[in-house]
Amino acid sequence: MSDIIRRDPRAEWIARNRLHPLHAAMSAPVAETRGPSGLIRKNPHAVGFIGPNGIKRIDRMNASGPVGLGGRRSASVAKEVELPLHRVAQVDYYIAVVPDMVGGRLSGHDRDVIGQAHALIREIGGAGAVLAIVFGEHREEAFDTAGVDRLLQLEGAQYEGYAPELRVAALAQVEQCFSPRYWLLPDSIAGGFELGRRLAARIGERPATSVWQADSARCTGRGAGGTSDIARDTPRLLLLAEECAAPVDETRHEVLPLTLDEPVSCRVQIEDCGLVAVDPNAISLAEAEFILSAGNGVHDWDQFHRAAEVLGATEGASRVAVDDGHMPRSRQVGATGTWVTARVYLAVGISGAIQHLQGIGQCEKVVAINTDIGCDMVKRAALSVIGDSEEVLAELIRLVQAYRLEEVDHAA
Ligand SMILES: Cc1cc2nc3c(=O)[nH]c(=O)nc-3n(C[C@H](O)[C@H](O)[C@H](O)COP(=O)(O)OP(=O)(O)OC[C@H]3O[C@@H](n4cnc5c(N)ncnc54)[C@H](O)[C@@H]3O)c2cc1C
Fold it and tell me: What's the pTM?
């Protein structure tokens, strides 16, 4: 097994939240730890459990719950604690969700949209099921904990890449077969924005766009470039903004596969000629998906720029790096710089001052490279590499270049 210490942000969040149903299981004290000499030590205070009458009891059969070794119990317990299964045996109605599946996985935005679907089901009542429609291959392994009751995967090379006509034709067929009560899509540039509007035209629905609040009667969306709110009756088709609802996190769902009765066919007039290569630094920081950001812990600036180039990342910086003249002001991330929403934010030698963390609050995954294991950026990060930035970047460049060479070899 790998020695890399990995944090589990969800387990940590549950351990902090005393009202969470899994809190007790996650935060029970560790009964056995391995001491610095390598010996296993027992913590007598952690053995046993409090019985229903308030008296402490020792469980000699060791049946009162899993016990992990070492101080990193919460992460291991997180795997062992199984969320309750939510079953919909006889479906009364469907709520169709079309996730963006950026990189083949559910994004945070997709999960919010599925959360909104469940909020509508809770409000309407009855046996409603969330039907997720996914195009092409995917790499997602957590449809169950994201809240998907039924999954319709439309496989085939014809759905890969930019294929809006075929995708809309498939969704129109879903409309005929399953007549979903609502259609929910993320209103995002990753796909939902365009697909949702095309679907609206196809099925003759007037969609509500940029919706950040919705129930079965009324919904509110952003209008006028985000400067005002538009409230209206909730239509069947909703294009939802990020954080429209809390994602599902306390139940597991069945993810039963569904299929379409007939193959999808349509006249395709758009030819996908592939992606156009752009300079990542020509993308504005606010829109960049992958940011490599430098702080005071970066000393070899040529190496940093080379790493950004090799990784294909947009460059960002802390205020100190900007004030010291290493990076232009337009690259500053933070409260007085740009607020970024990257899917991956790789912070090199940045301590994680509050003004900087404010600017990366919306980032999906933060990775830290730092020498200080106790710094706030490491606490914020989902993955941290503790080491000298120069050494880590050198190794990163080497690995990425080797990976690219391997890809070229495979293609040849
Ligand atoms: C009003 C106000 C507004 C501000 N607005 C912003 C803002 O918008 N954005 C912003 O970023 N800051 C802002 N700041 C500044 C902020 O408070 C911090 O001073 C700044 O973010 C620190 O930058 P840093 O993390 O790069 O540097 P430092 O705090 O010096 O941290 C350097 C980090 O690098 C690590 N390190 C050192 N050597 C190495 C090495 N060889 N390898 C790996 N790691 C190493 C250290 O452990 C440390 O964690 C603002 C401050 C004020 C008062």
Answer: 0.64
